[in-house]
Structure formats: structure tokens, C-alpha cells
Amino acid sequence: MKQQPLVSIIIIAYNRPHTLSKLLQSIYKSSYKNTELIVVNNSEEIYKSQYEEIMQDYPSIGHIWCGKNLFISGAWNVGFKRAKGDLIFFCGDDYIFDKMMLSQLTKFILSNDDCGVVGPGVYYSNNEIFPPLFSISLSTGIPLAKKYNPGANLVHIVDGVIMIKRCLVNEISGFDEKNFNFYLESADLCARIRQKGYKCIILFEAKVWHDHLPRKGNMFTDPDRYKYSKTYYYLLSTKIKFIRKYADILQKISFFCLFLWLLIVWHGAIILLLSKQKKREKIIMLYKGAINGIFEKL
Fold first, then answer.
1. What is the pTM of this model?
2. Class of domain 7-210
3. Quick one: pLDDT at residue 275?
4. Mean pLDDT of all residues in 283-295
5. Rounded CA gap, 161 and 235, in Å?
6. Is the pLDDT of residue 279 over 50?
7. For residues 3 and 174, which has the higher predicted lDDT (pLDDT)?
């Protein structure tokens, strides 16, 4: 019987010891056994002892305590340097794996040479599907969805939970920490994979649960949905950089002459009218993000 390839699972932990514990329990119940687990811990110091207590139950797991927040791309790159597997699985700490998910993703990516990235269908903890993005419009900056079919679906973005071959991570030099460290990191990774001629796939028969309930109401009109005001900086700066990097000239004209300013005004108006805290700080972060996105060298 042919041995299963080693899958390195690289998990970013951040200030949520209880969710990491549930994730690890689900991984060890997986039907796929040839795995290597690496936890890259971006958490604050006050959580260190709680994580160390959890890790005592999992001595084989590589636990990297960063001492600061390396954000998403930085943490995944650090984990990848430690990884030994031929297949790499990147994820956050707030997921629960279905027992068959790793086996299904591994079988698919090894059976399809043109598949560069594959991810599972994502569900909320109440079993409601977490609607995946298809792409981001390079003319407007607006996320785009589509109607998906059962099984394998071609997309431009696989986000949050990502399986990829080790050789491809090396070929594209990993995640872009400079330009997409906190937001659109997966979109940029997938864009570079597609430029190499590979496909990005969501395989809905493989399942993972996002350990949250669906948010009530319209999250896009809730200016206080982010814990940190600087999130507005990253949201705008990375979106602008993504358009600069991948849009053609006509798409750039559309975005920079019209939709960027509509985006700034819309976010600013929502903050001024609906935010209950730190309005001035959020507005400042929003405009700083726009300036950085427009002028910083890619």
C-alpha cells in the first residue's frame, strides 16, 4: 500500500486558546493520519500560559511563540519554513475539521496536476454554508460571488483554509508579507498561482466548520465590527495594492477615477453616521490606508 504523503498543517493562533483546542481535537480525529502540525502563535503575552498548558497534551506539535503579531502572511511564512510536508495546509485557529476533509482534499490535489490550490466548503457552526468569494472585481474592488455546483468549483480565491503543493509555495516565494500581510493575502497567493497556469478549486464535498455563528444584520454597514481601528488601514491599502498589481489599464481607470473615491466616501460616511466609538481614529486610519495603497512601492 502506497504511503500517504505528509501534510503539514500550519495554524495561526491569536488570543483564542479555547478555539485552538477544539481545532486540534478535530484534526486528531481525521481519517488522514500522516500529518505534521505547526502552530504559529501571534497571541499576546497574557495568553502564553494557557497555550503552553494546551500544548502539554500535544507534545508532537511544533509550537512557535512569536512574541508579537506577525499577522497572517508573516505567520504562515514562518510556519512554512519549519514544515516538512509535500503538501501544505494553511488555516486559522477557529475551524473544526470534518473527519474526511484532509483525505478528500489530498486525493483531489494529487489526482489533478493542473490544480494549484484547493480548499473545502466552509460552514458556520450551525451548518449554514459560509458563502465563498469567487473573485474581486478589478474595476470596482467589490467582492464577487457566483452560484456554485456540488463537487469541484473553479474560483479565483480560496480563502482561510488552503491546501497547496510545497513546490508551488517555493515557486512563488510564499505569501507577500510586505503588501498583503493582513488582508487579501490568500487572494494574492491565488492570483500568482493562476499566473503560473494552475487552477484554484473549492471542493464542496470536503467540509470544514468555521467556529462562529452567522452574523446578524448587514456586517458591511457595521463600522464597529472590527476590534482594532487600524483594520480600516489594511482593508483599504491592500485593496488598492491588489488593483494596482493585477488590473489592466481600463480596470485601473475605472477603479481609481470613480470607485476608489466612492469606497472612501462610503466607508467614511458609515463610520461618521453609525460608529459608536473611535470615529476620528477610524477615519484617520481609512485615509492613511488610502495614501499608503496609492503611493507605496509594490
1. 0.92
2. alpha beta
3. 83
4. 95
5. 20
6. yes
7. 174
List every span in the chain annotated with CATH 3.90.550.10.
7-210
The pLDDT value recorded for residue 125 is: 87
Extract the C-alpha cell encoding 106.
489530498
C-alpha cell at 166: 510545497
pLDDT at 97 > cutoff 80: yes
